[in-house]
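User: Quick sanity check before I run a bigger batch. Here is a single chain. Can you write out its predicted 3D structure?
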Amino acid sequence: MSAAPYVPVTKDEVAFVGTGPVPTRPYYDPAYFELEREAIFKRVWLHVGRVDEVDQPGQYIVRPIEAARASVLIVRGADGELRAFHNVCAHRSAQLVPGDGGTARNFQCRYHGWTYGSDGRLRGVPDEGSFFDVDKAECGLAPIALETCAGFIFVNLDRTPRHSLREFLGVWADRIEALDIGASDVFSEYTYEVEANWKVTFDNFQEIYHGRIVHAKSIGAQTFAPENPFGYPTKYSFAEDGLHRSKTLWFNPNYQPGPIEALASRIVATSSPPVSDTMASSTEHFYLFPNVTFLAAQNRCFTQTVWPIDAHHTRSVIRVYWEGPDPSASVRFAREFRTAATLDVHCEDRDIIEASHQGLRSGAFESLHFQIHEVDCRHAYHAVDRHVEEYRSELAGGRPA
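Assistant: Done. Predicted structure follows.
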């Protein structure tokens, strides 16, 4: 692997994002988290999966979105259309579909037996004649806005979304589509929960300043070099009204992997085409507001979605996407090795994320201090706070929230 010479990012390049301390309270305050629920997670586009998961008529997935107190049912209709609904029966608002996915022609409520088609229409009501004014045409499942980009599914819980998905993503839509990850119906997935605020969790993966300390024995050697002793990125990008951001992580050109890692890399490289020709000597990390990372590297695409559970607990969903099913045992080994290596890195992060949240929650300090290569964390803070302040202004002005 070859890499371009390391050219450091300067203070002047990122100073426009801000230079002063950032308050700590939004990172642990339950009242602030309640505002985030309304201002962000009930209003913006959220990544929830891949179209390959619901490729055939009747296939469905269920996604809990605790930050919005919602459960989302995503289903491929008999007509081939992909739709999203609140996973709630129109009768007495019981949760309709248990589990996390499957295949079904109809969905029947476990409480009183109301039945819905895969298009969300109410099909059957037991003892319908005993109701006073039920119009089945008006009692279908509550729809949720759904759009896709590069095969990734996004939903928006706002009844009337302010922007289309493409407007929301801006140039990042083109960048994700340029990954050209193809038929990614194959992925390795794992989840983990931490006792930490979602922003503390997300920030950990938006900066590599901690890599020299936390990841010295795992991925550190891939990015550390005499000319770049902290493994810092070579570029940061910001756009779309201050919502999304990215960084380009530099690789040590003299890194020598161990024999098993080298073997796994060779197998993966020969079994799948590169995700992008431009990613041969670096990894591009896209951070889409509010809570998802897309990582583009050779032969694979990685996503991490950080889901708030409450002000002090977070769930991370990690996926490594592959081009097609395993063609051989050796490819299966190589892919499992790559996934396990990623899991090892997250295991190193877990304790320090929780320690950071506990320190913030103590109230010992009222502000945080970000350096150059924590600029993505600062940028994310401003994006969140701007949404919260706009929501507060709406409430103060008496406008519908």
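The chain has ten helices and 19 strands.

User: Great, the batch can go ahead then.
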